[in-house]
Amino acid sequence: THLPKALDDAKVAGRRLPIVVYAHGGLNDERDGLAVAAKHVHWWVRNGVYPIYFAWETGLLSSIVQVIQTALGASRAAARFDVFDFTDAQIEAAARRFGANRFWSDMKHIAELAVEPGGGARLVAEKLGAFVAANPEHIDVHAVGHSAGSNFHSFFLPQLLDAGVAAVKTVQFLAPAITVDSFLGTIMSRLRNIGALTVFTMKDSFERADQTATVYRKSLLYLIHEALEDREEVPILGLEKSILDDIRLKRLFGIGGRVTSRTDTVVWSPSGEEDLAAASKSVRHGGFDDDPLTMNSVLRRVLGLSGADPVHDPFVAQLPGDLLQLLAPVADAGEVRH
Questions:
Q1: How far apart are CA 333 and CA 156, in angstroms?
Q2: Cα(146)–Cα(30) distance, integer angstroms
Q3: What does pLDDT average to over the chain?
Q4: What mean pLDDT do residues 150-164 have?
């Protein structure tokens, strides 16, 4: 009942209804995924956007950390374990040797299963596709994926397009953890049905200065790049070095003076604030969905605003609090799919 009402309200106001389909990342468990939704949904609704959030099972980081610690000869319960006793190269080798990649692979398989017949994401795609197909002149669909959320959308968006959504107006990835090959084989192959693609991600020096779960002294994207895929040094869409090393991505994003007829772009964080539709200050892999500049840029792109246009109700980062209190109002503001 929420979605038809939101559409009716948009019609009365004489505007199209933007629907944002959001997939979280960061190897969050279901509780954390719902907390991400709780941080955002009221803000989306106040800005005239209808949010649909997937809270999917990605809470595997603790398992990966335990494998690494065990591989390094440290007891899981040992308070004396100190990551600084080991180099990143040793941590990467331990992750590979003891099969930490199987947890990352399982997470991606969960997303794949979700779009198979009977899966929750498949049901959402079919229902949303039918709703949009019945109201094409009144609805715009957008997608946002943070970190592993890009992997989720690599399965979900093709299904959504096949289910009756003619086009996704914007796709915005925050620190995407999808491999370049997977991106090229899924999202890139459906680019004719995507209005504009934006990647928000850190400059390489900040990826290298980040930390993953107090175990690894680079960003999660580097751990995936070096140790969590099926081979070493797999190009990852969110890594600056991977984008700059791939002529197809440079051409797509218009990097190096290349001219393109599309409006796809990369926002390198931390950025300047000259264009508030392409700005980010996150210097942590997991920080993009809490960064006001990033989220307000995402909102501007969804609403079709320029960087000079004011946002009616800008995103403000919330301080950590009781997640149960955060989750309480979610059902009233939009739909959370899990």
A1: 23
A2: 15
A3: 88
A4: 97
For residue 329, whether the previous peptide bond is cis, meaning omega lies within 30 degrees of 0, is no
So what's the pLDDT on residue 70? 84
Query: What pTM value is reported for the model?
Result: 0.90
- Give dist(CA 319, CA 33) in Å, integer: 17
Whether omega for the bond prior to residue 270 falls within 30 degrees of 0, making it cis, is: yes
Of the candidates 19, 5, 26, which has an alpha carbon nearest to the alpha carbon of residue 52? 19
> pLDDT digits over 15-65, tens only?
999 999 999 986 666 677 688 888 899 999 999 999 999 988 766 777 888
What mean pLDDT comes out for the span 244-264?
88
Alpha carbons 160 and 104: distance in angstroms, whole number: 24
**Phi, psi for residue 80 in degrees, rounded to 5:** -80, -10
- Tens-place pLDDT, residues 186-198: 999 999 999 999 9
**What torsion, rounded to 10 degrees, do the Cα atoms 324, 329, 331, 336 define?**
-60
Main-chain dihedrals φ then ψ at residue 265, nearest 5 degrees: -155, 160
Hey, which residues does 18 pair with through a beta bridge?
140
The answer to whether 175 and 147 have CB atoms below 8 angstroms apart is yes
Q: Nearest to residue 223, comparing CAs of 113, 67, 78? A: 67
Q: Quick one: which of 222, 216, 229 has its CA closest to 69? A: 216
- The answer to whether 253 and 187 are in contact (CB under 8 A) is no
- The total number of residues written for the chain in this structure: 338
Q: What is the DSSP string of 170-227?
A: EEEEES--SBHHHHHHTTGGGGGGEEEEEEEEE-HHHHHH--BTTTBSS-HHHHIIII
Q: Are 97 and 123 in contact (CB under 8 A)?
A: no
Non-local CB neighbours of 292 within 8 Å, separated by 6+ positions:
314, 315, 316, 317
Three-state DSSP class for 170?
Answer: strand
